[in-house]
Every structure is written in C-alpha cells, then in structure tokens.
Design brief:
By secondary structure, this protein is of the alpha+beta class. Helices cover about 25% and strands about 20% of the residues. A hairpin with a 2-residue loop joins strand 4 and strand 5 (about 135-145).
Length: about 160
C-alpha cells in the first residue's frame, strides 16, 4: 500500500513480442531518404534571435507552417546545390558588410559579434532566412520577410 492507504497500481508493460517485431538498427536504413543526409541541409534553432525584429514570435500559426514547408523543400538539396550556384537560392555575405546597422547590433545582442560570414536563403519574393552554416547545418538566426537585413539596391541607380 502507498502512503494514505491507497493501493498502488502496477504499470502494464507491452508484451516482449511488440519489441521483437520492431525494426531496429541504423536510422539511416529506417528513415526514407536519409542515406545522404550528411550532404543535405539540416536546421538548428539554438541561436534563433528571439527578441529582435526578425524573430519568429510575430508570426501566426499559418505563417510558421508556410515557413517550415519552404524549409522542408530545401532539405532535399545539398549544400552545394543551395549555395554554390551563384545568387539563388542561397548566398553568403561577409558580416562586416551588412548594410543594416540594426542587424549588426542584433548579432552583438545575441552574443555572436565575432562571426565573419552570414548565409541567407531566399524564400518567396522578399523573404530571407538568415543564419550561419557549419558543414551542412544551417543555424537559423532570423526570418526576414521584408528583406530588411540586406535590402536590395533600387534598380537603375
């Protein structure tokens, strides 16, 4: 009996047969399309700027789902396909050349002032996903739906 005179229930465990019938082993062999995951982009959100103007907090549920849907599309591509074809869909910039002073200040504010390169992925027309690339891992920093972090130069100027 447990404290207070109540009978303690025993937890029912599944039969051993359930575990025996499960496929176990290397996740690469169990997950579809995971065999070449080391070459394809994947995401980390540890350094996401939660307080700044380009965080995810202002987004509603539908906009978050739309962003994630676009990110999933990138997961079928290798880093080389995304970033080494020229301008799109991805590009790298020198951090010290960021034209938006607020972006440089935010990097300082989130503890990343010493980064030298920053990467962006174009999503939709103006939208840009900004972060740092380490191997095939894109560390998401900002979602910039209005193209404010690195605005385009006006045409014919």
């Amino acid at each position: 009996m447990a404290k207070g005179g109540k009978v303690k229930k025993k937890l029912q465990l599944p039969s051993a047969r359930v575990a025996e019938e499960k496929r176990t082993g290397d996740p690469a062999s169990l997950l579809p399309s995971s065999g070449n995951s080391n070459d394809r982009i994947c995401w980390r959100f540890t350094h996401l700027d939660r307080e700044g103007p380009w965080g995810l907090a202002p987004l509603d549920h539908d906009r978050i789902l739309a962003l994630i849907t676009e990110m999933v599309k990138f997961e079928s591509q290798t880093i080389n396909e995304l970033f080494h074809r020229g301008e799109w869909p991805g590009k790298c910039h020198d951090v010290h050349q960021l034209p938006n002073r607020a972006a440089l200040d935010r990097l300082e504010g989130i503890g990343l002032p010493d980064m030298t390169k920053i990467w962006k992925l174009r999503i939709g027309g103006a939208g840009r996903l900004w972060g740092f690339l380490v191997g095939n891992v894109f560390h998401v920093i900002w979602w910039d739906p209005e193209h404010e972090v690195w605005p385009s130069k006006p045409k014919n100027t």
